[in-house]
Amino acid sequence: MNDLTPIELTPFDNTDADDRAERPRRWRIAALIAILVAVVLSWYLLRGEGSPAAAAAPPAVTVAAPLQREVTEWDDYIGRFEASRSVELRPRVSGEIVAVHFRDGQIVRKGAALFTIDPRPYRAALAEAEAGVATARSDLTLARSELERARRLIADDAVAQSEIDVLEARVAASHAALAAARARVRARRLDLGFTTVRAPITGRISDRRVDPGNLVVAGDGPSATLLTTINATDPLHFTFNASEALFLEARREGRDRGAAVDIRLQDETDYTWHGTLDFTDNGLDPASGTMRARAVVRNPDNFLTPGMFGNMRMAGGTARNALLVPETAIQSDQTRKLVLVVDTDGTVAARQVELGQAVGALRVVRSGLAAGERVVIAGAQMAVPGQKVTVREGRIATRQDAKETPAADAPPREAATAG
Predict the structure, then answer these.
(1) Residue 7 burial (CB < 10 Å; 0-12/13-18/19+)?
(2) Which CATH code fits 63-72+319-418?
């Protein structure tokens, strides 16, 4: 009998088989994911390897040729308005102020009553002087009568010639006494008239410096009490100082007397006030080297007031052809004034210019710019000298040109107009 060894049977484990079956599927998923990542990465990397981006276009600017116009050169000054006449009102007689006949700051006419000084003492003095005239007239009548009687008796040798001489001298003295008495009457009448203080000129009066009830003192000059002041405001004087060079230029051109001037106030943009140059001083101020001059300006509405500042211009000669560019086209480089121009190939260049007067929103260019050059009038902040730009054509217009342009094409303000 064979010795049989029992065989131990173990249960079947299919875990390895499942793992072996699952592994190819995981590989396929991983491979698919790797392929997708490679495709995405290749697309991302290949996207930057395409054709290079196009270069940025040059900046666009608007250009126009300088405007050519006949303009009159003006000399500019700064000055101040002054009263054409000014009076400090002081009393001619002393006394108490009993009435004031004006409102502070009003316009008064020449001869208008302003103050009344108590007239009673001066009426009494006038009456006394008139009584003196009556006494002198009576003395003269008596002296004449005595002289006539003496002359009738001289034919009978009843009166000596010496007595006749005495009587004639008495008559002459009586005549002189009467004349003196009449002069005293006139003086007292003047004093009585001076008790009413009247306006010596037409103008705007200041405020009263003395109220009723106060005593005022007459005197010579500043020793008398100041009552108020009056300034004549129509016309006014506009005084200014001109440099020696401008004075010589005006003198050679005959503009030192009678030249027309235009004035604008500090809050005005246009020259709305007009006058005529009527005075230049008789010498230059050695301290400043300037000449004091004056113009007469009409002020019918009394709008202008002495002490106001103003900007004045005076025509510097005949009109001449000039080039004008907008103020916005002018750039500053420290002490230099520049404008940008564009050459025919589109390259920007800078031109140093000498400027003249302003004409509205435009400025006269005296030198440094040619009539045919293309000036950058819009977009100058994008233009750099030496670089190229894209050009748009425009035009420069004055305010009058803008008014004549149809409404659909008219620019909103006086300046450069883009095409």
Answers:
(1) exposed
(2) 2.40.420.20
In the chain, where does the domain assigned CATH 2.40.30.170 lie? 74-83+229-315
pLDDT of residue 44: 64
The CATH classification number of 74-83+229-315 equals 2.40.30.170
User: Residue 366: which of 329, 324, 415, 314 has the closest Cα?
Assistant: 324
- pTM as predicted: 0.61
Using alpha carbons only, what angle is made at residue 266 by residues 261 and 268, rounded to the nearest 5 degrees?
75
Q: Which of 123, 90, 290 is nearest to 198 (CA)?
A: 90
As annotated, the residues of the chain forming the CATH 1.10.287.470 domain(s) are 119-194
Phi, psi of 182 (to 5 degrees): -65, -35
Which residues touch 410 (CB under 8 Å, ≥6 apart)? 402, 403
Mark the ranges of the chain whose per-residue pLDDT is less than 70: 1-24, 42-56, 155, 254-256, 316-319, 399-419
pLDDT of residue 408: 35
197: Cβ contacts below 8 Å, ≥ 6 apart: 89, 91, 92, 113, 114, 115, 116, 117, 227
> Strand, helix or coil at 126?
helix
Name the nearest CA neighbour of 231 among 400, 83, 40, 90.
83
Q: What is the dihedral angle through the alpha carbons of 246, 251, 253, 254, rounded to the nearest 10 degrees?
A: 140
Closest residue by Cα to residue 280 from 317, 248, 316: 248
Tell which residue, 272, 301, 285, 209, has the closest CA to residue 241.
285
Residue range(s) in the chain whose domain bears CATH number 2.40.420.20: 63-72+319-418
Rg (CA), the chain: 52
User: Cα separation of 380 and 118, whole Å?
Assistant: 78
CATH superfamily assigned to domain 119-194: Helix hairpin bin (1.10.287.470)
Find where tokens 């001289």 sit: 154
Which residues does residue 82 pair with via DSSP β-bridges, in sequence order? Answer: 237
- Report the C-alpha gap between 278 and 285 in whole angstroms: 19
- 142 HSE (CA, 13 A, CB side): 10
pLDDT of residue 411: 40
